[in-house]
Write a structure and sequence with these properties.
This protein is of the alpha/beta class and 260 residues long. The chain has seven helices and 13 strands. 41% of the residues lie in helices and 22% in strands. Strand 1, helix 1 and strand 2 form a beta-alpha-beta unit.
């Protein structure tokens, strides 16, 4: 029973070694890299990974499908560079493949935020489908927040995948900028609309939901940080969507004389 681990990277030199070491038991490691400038590719190759370099960035979903297309093993494990497979999770993955009772498996994910693993705020157990038979699943084509579509049955594992999300708030700010921009573009492409007022309301609701309803306050200062991050990400997504609407509305009409 063979298995490939697939992941996408860009400037993950600080993560890639620990990530690949945690899945060194897999038969193959396949990485699709979108223009790293920090030596990620060389580090990955030195650890035995197959690295495919791409010049463009089609979004998270399409890029992960590119990595998936290179897998030729019985099973596929999809992870991110900031995630780690523990020995206990490995045992469950191997047992699941051997049993063959499902076509895909979801697993809980335990995420670390600025020095603390978060067990509330809607962050845990945060089940994600990551293990599947090759040919039985593919990622959606979403620019961000992609999902795995499974053609078959899905089982569950109980041991969490460890997720080392943010070491400090500078990383938080960069991710908020990146994901809010991609989210706004995706929403705009789907015909969604926003106003400054709706942006404020979305941001406020994200904070209340995370910190109070999902009990983020039980995770101390880091729980407050998660709530603030969610609030800012939601606000900026919708204010950027509003700006895209205005920009599109201000675009000059095409010259009729140039139409064919």
């Amino acid at each position: 029973m063979s298995i490939s681990v697939v992941l996408i990277t860009k400037n993950e030199a600080h993560n890639i070694a620990a990530c690949l070491e945690s899945v060194s038991w897999c038969d193959r490691a396949i990485i699709v890299d979108s223009g790293s400038t920090d030596g990620t590719q060389d580090l990955a190759r030195a650890l035995g990974a197959q690295v495919v370099e791409t010049a463009d960035w089609p979004g998270f979903g399409p890029q992960k499908n590119r990595a998936l297309a290179h897998a030729d093993t019985d099973w596929v494990l999809s992870i991110d560079a900031d995630e780690r497979v523990t020995p206990e999770l490995r045992e469950q993955i191997v047992a699941a493949m051997q049993s063959g009772s499902a076509d895909a498996y979801r697993m809980p994910r335990l995420s670390r935020f600025c020095g603390r693993f978060i067990r509330h705020a809607g962050w845990y157990p945060d089940y994600v489908v990551r293990l599947f038979r090759r040919g039985k699943a593919r990622f959606t084509d979403d620019l961000v927040h992609e999902n795995l579509i499974v053609d078959g049955t899905t089982g569950s594992l109980s041991t969490p995948l460890l997720h080392y999300t943010y070491d400090d708030f500078s990383q938080v700010l960069r991710k908020v900028e990146q994901y809010s921009t991609l989210g706004a573009r995706q929403s705009f492409a789907r015909g969604k609309t926003a106003t400054p007022a709706s942006a404020v309301l979305h941001g406020t609701w994200a904070f209340v939901r995370t910190y109070l309803l999902r009990r983020g306050f039980l995770d101390g200062a880091q729980g407050l940080g998660v709530a603030m991050m969610n609030a800012h990400a939601s606000y900026y997504k919708y204010i950027k969507l509003w700006h895209l609407q205005r920009t599109a509305g201000d675009a000059p009409a095409a010259d009729p004389a140039r139409r064919r």
